UniProtKB/TrEMBL annotation:
One of its GO terms (molecular function) is kinase activity. Belongs to the sugar phosphate cyclases superfamily. Dehydroquinate synthase family. It is found in: Cytoplasm. It comes from Bifidobacterium colobi. Monomer. This is Multifunctional fusion protein. Mg(2+) binds at T18. The keyword Membrane does not apply. The gene is aroK.
Length: 540
């Protein structure tokens, strides 16, 4: 099988493609090739001389052939000339390279910095005459094309070549999940180290004010986000909310609405939610309701938030009557799951997130379950201090990506939870009841873990699955350090809350259960005796 480049770098003249590309190659111990240098080797003369003798069309033809060859048979970092992506055949070759898993990086430099470097470099036929005027004209033509043909966009304003190279490496190594569908404004979930660096790109140039909504425990991560936002030229309003479920109330939301009003937030401004699942839920709800909906980006900092709350477009707050009873379906402009934030997670908060990861394995992607089995001990003994750079980091990144893909599959077909999306609620009917009866002292992922065991027991009672499937739930979840039983309330209280569940239809209960591992079905209105027997089994 032919090799293909680790990354292809493009950008305007003076963007630093060659310098940054060489730094990237050096850091990754990969070869580097520059298309212009390869063309000069091919034609046996300098590019300005070739331009003068044969003209631009002949040069572009040679350039396209050289690029096509390197995209097929070069395994390092490959830098293109400024005008190369404007050639239709090269655009097609780049699209095919992306389809094969390639990364095309648009190195987007500050225009003033790029013009100065381009002028200093000399030897650029496309800048003959008034160089700055020519550069600006070319930028206007090329920038939209560069955006279209690339799948990684790296701003380098104010960065050294080494800093820009590190940013390129971080962004190229990230895992990307595209979420789209008939009723959804498409967005991207970026997973990996440094994905928060995409914040300015995702927000765009339209917003002027940004409400950065976060909790106190993630202060160091919110400091980083604030610095990125200010570097991007936004006016940042820092809004700290209570941690976990106490932050998801109408009182907290109202306080934020008052601030947005007092500080003049308009429909073109935006919200960034940074923190765990409760923080991203609240931030999304505020964004969905302010002026009937403004742009928002989620930066989840816990495993649970990365795989569940921050993706899918569910936003909401709790009421005294139950969890998430007030909210909306409102998709984010992007989700940036920066795994560096997991290094600050306590062990028990990390493990909680594995409940939602396992759920996605049980309902659809069984490879998730195999990965959890294989790495159960390392996951159970997660230590944020040693996480980054360890083999476990790649395991966790894959689990996040797979779980997000499961969620994207259900959300893209059913944004507003009319059918298919309900299957994401496996384990949640009892799980939400546990959270309410425990006054939210139980964390969501732990409650869902018990809820999945309950759903498996109920499915077994109904004859849908064998006992060994129930035992597999118990053994896998236990091996990860998740709870599999609960004794904190009466059946009568639980049953009353189950009847308030969003899946309930009238006075009839509805559960999501398995009929085999990896396949879910609805179970409508089982008998109270069966529901009670399943409850008895999870009390043991």
């Amino acid at each position: 099988m032919a090799a293909h480049p680790y990354a292809v770098i493009l950008g305007m003249m003076g963007a630093g493609k060659t310098r940054v590309g060489k730094e990237v190659a050096h850091m990754l111990h990969l070869p580097f090739a520059d298309a212009d240098a390869e063309i000069e080797r091919e034609v046996g003369m300098k590019i300005p001389a070739y331009f003068e003798q044969y003209g631009e069309p002949a040069f572009r033809e040679v350039e396209a052939d050289v690029i096509a060859d390197f995209l097929e048979d070069f395994d390092g970092i490959f830098s293109l000339g400024g005008g190369a992506p404007m050639t239709p055949s090269t655009q097609r070759e780049l699209a095919a390279y992306i389809d094969r898993g390639g990364k095309v990086v648009y190195l987007d430099a500050d225009p003033q910095e790029a013009m100065e470097r381009a002028n200093r470099g000399g030897g650029r036929p496309m800048l003959n005459g008034d160089a700055n005027a020519r550069w600006k004209k070319l930028y206007k033509q090329r920038d939209p094309v560069f955006h279209e043909v690339s799948n990684v966009h790296v701003h380098t304003r104010g960065l050294t070549p080494q800093g820009a190279a590190k940013k390129v490496i971080d962004m190229v190594s990230q895992r990307i999940v595209h979420v789209d569908g008939a009723a959804i404004e498409p967005y991207v979930v970026a997973i990996g180290e440094g994905s928060m660096n995409r914040l300015v790109d995702v927000l765009g140039t339209k917003p002027r004010k940004i409400a950065l909504i976060h909790t106190q425990p993630v202060q160091r991560h919110s400091d980083r986000a604030r610095a990125l936002l200010r570097q991007g030229g936004y006016d940042v309003s820092d809004i700290v909310i209570p941690d976990a479920e106490p932050g998801k109330t109408i009182t907290v939301a109202n306080g934020i609405w008052e601030r947005l009003g007092n500080e003049g937030f308009t429909r073109s401004d935006a919200v960034v939610g940074l923190g765990g699942g409760a923080a991203t839920d609240l931030a999304g709800f505020v964004a969905a309701t302010w002026m009937r909906g403004i742009r928002y980006v989620n930066c989840p900092t816990s495993l649970l938030a990365m795989v569940d709350a921050s993706t899918g477009g569910k936003t909401g707050i709790n009421t005294p009557q139950g969890k998430n009873l007030v909210g909306s379906f409102y998709t984010p402009a992007g989700v940036l799951a920066d795994v560096t934030t997991l290094s600050s997670l306590p062990n028990d908060i990390f493990i909680e997130g594995l409940g939602e990861v396992a759920k996605s394995g049980f309902i659809r992607d069984t490879e998730i379950l195999h990965i959890l089995e294989e790495h159960a001990s390392e996951l159970k003994h997660f230590d944020g201090q040693t996480f980054l750079g360890s083999p476990l980091e790649e395991v966790v990144a894959e689990l996040i990506e797979r779980t997000v893909r499961v969620k994207a599959y259900h959300v893209s077909s059913d944004l507003k939870e009319k059918g298919l999306r309900e299957f994401l609620n496996y384990g949640h009917t009892l799980g939400h009841a546990i959270e309410k009866l425990e006054h939210f002292r139980w964390r969501h992922g732990n409650a869902v873990a018990v809820g999945m065991v309950y759903a498996a027991e109920l499915a077994n009672i109904m004859g849908l699955i064998d006992r060994d499937v129930v035992d597999y739930h118990r053994s896998l979840l236990s091996s990860l350090g998740l709870p599999i039983s609960w004794n904190g309330g009466s059946f009568e209280d639980v049953l009353a809350l189950m009847h308030r569940d969003k899946k309930a239809r009238g006075n009839e209960l509805r559960f999501v259960v398995l009929d085999s591992i990896g396949h879910v079905v609805h179970l409508d209105n089982p008998s109270t005796e069966d529901v009670k027997e399943a409850f008895r089994r999870i009390q043991q």
